From TrEMBL:
Species for this entry: Eublepharis macularius
Similarity section: Belongs to the parvalbumin family.
UniProt cross-references to Gene3D superfamilies, sorted A to Z: EF-hand
Keyword entries, A-Z: Calcium, Metal-binding, Repeat
CC annotations in GO: cytoplasm
Purpose of the protein: In muscle, parvalbumin is thought to be involved in relaxation after contraction. It binds two calcium ions.
Protein name stated in the entry: Parvalbumin
Length: 110
């Protein structure tokens, strides 16, 4: 399944473009622009599994760094600072990774 099966390609392009500059990533604004906030819980879980590249059931810090590329190959890598901020926002149980429930909570509470 591709991200464009779940999200509008124009919204993806707009969202990734809005945060093209280094150190500009804001997950709350990104999730809103890309259309995640309007998605069902089922669709959010599908999107989580697309972003979970190693299929471990978690999005780890090394996967978060490339989260924009998960939406489109044109996305930039997040900086270490942006990656750590996103991990801190989503990792509610402190295990150093984001599970599916943490991801859905991160999106819906943003």
């Amino acid at each position: 399944m591709a991200m464009t099966d779940l999200l509008n390609a124009d919204d993806i392009k707009k969202a990734v473009g809005a945060f093209a500059a280094a150190e500009s990533f804001n997950h709350k604004k990104f999730f809103e622009i890309v259309g995640l906030k309007k998605k069902s819980l089922e669709d959010l879980k599908k999107i989580f599994h697309i972003l979970d590249k190693d299929r471990s059931g978690f999005i780890e810090e090394d996967e978060l760094k490339f989260v924009l590329k998960g939406f489109t190959p044109d996305g930039r890598d997040l900086s270490d600072k942006e990656t750590k901020a996103l991990l801190a926002a989503g990792d509610k149980d402190g295990d150093g990774k984001i599970g599916v429930d943490e991801f859905t909570s991160l999106v819906t509470s943003s």
